[in-house]
Amino acid sequence: MKIICIGRNYAEHAKELNNPLPAKPVFFMKPDTALLPPHNPFFYPDFSKEIHYEVELVLKISRNGKHIKEKYANTYYDEIGIGIDFTARDLQNDCKQKGLPWEIAKAFDMSAPVGEFVQKTKFKDLGDINFGLKINGEWRQQGNSKDMIFNFGQIIAYVSQFVTLRTGDYIFTGTPEGVGPANINDKFELFIGEEKLLGFNVK
Ligand code: MG
User: Fold this and answer.
1) How many angstroms is it from 35 CA to the middle of ligand 1?
2) CATH 3.40.640.10 is right for the domain spanning 3-201
3) 165-184 pLDDT per residue, tens
4) The model's pTM
5) What's the mean per-residue pLDDT of the chain?
6) Where are the domains of the chain?
7) Over pLDDT 70: what percentage of the chain?
8) Chain centre distance of CA 185
9) Among 34, 77, 82, 159, which residue's beta carbon has the most beta carbons within 10 A?
10) How far is the CA of 117 from the centre of ligand 1 (A)?
11) Residues with CB under 5 A from ligand 1 (ion)
């Protein structure tokens, strides 16, 4: 499986990193080795001094598809979950400055913890999903899918023009504002609505 991640999909987050608002979705990928094995801590990597958290809703692709039309896109995922797009911000800033790809900053091992998934049918409105991240018991990021610049259907339609989606692939759909540094001994808890879907510690 592969992990596709959308960048700059919430206006307030794009602003906090001084990025322009995109006219088309921006995406990049992480390999399957980026998943955090269940019940594992996230080990702070020694190649970065500035690992940032980005909490994001995650779609689980349920059918193979290419050139998917936006109006059919919601038939290509059945479940929605939540994850962290861990980013080595110091390395990413260096890559951006030099115009280089972001992989060393985004695709490293354990950079994509993903929690339990929820059946799509449990949501009243996919365009109004509250989600968030607590660290050490305090809210650090709280978002709602209504603030996405590109909605789930637009993301799937766009990405599938370039990359075939396969059953089991994940799509990270972008982070709201409030990103910040992770620290050793932090306790992460990820929520959709009131429901905690993932917890892990930073070691
Ligand atoms: Mg992200």
Assistant:
1) 14
2) no
3) 999 999 999 999 999 999 99
4) 0.97
5) 97
6) 3-201
7) 100
8) 22
9) 82
10) 18
11) 54, 85, 175
